[in-house]
Sequence to fold (136 residues):
Amino acid sequence: MHLSAQHLAEVVEALRHERAGCGHERRQVTRLEVQTSLQIARYRDGICTEEINVLTRDISIGGIGLLQSVAMEVGEQVVVRLPRLERPPLFVLSAVTHCRRLGDGLWGVGMQFQRLLTLEANEVRTVEQIRQSILG
Fold:
């Protein structure tokens, strides 16, 4: 069965209307849609702890939107491992700006980038701990 073009248009209009009522849009920079898997790690007292596999929704110069199975608290700090081609990945300290339940076991999480972690400055216990925490 396929929906008629009219039915589909009506459903899309209703879904967009529902989404528009789900909070105030505060984005100040353009986001690029990117869907891929990443690994992040909770960051507490200079140590990467729990590793979480996530899916990206979008990314901008100021932050990243994720889909994940774990809820997070606003303000919680996380290290996001951002890959680069032919260069080492970036480890970006980020803060959770919102966490919304999207469905059973699925959370939409927005994060604002705070700063790059410079491993040489000993901002984390060891490079090996980051690698073990984030890379598995």
User: Anything to note?
Assistant: The longest helix spans residues 5-20. The longest strand covers residues 87-103. The mean pLDDT is 80. Residues 22 and 135 are 35 Å apart (CA to CA).
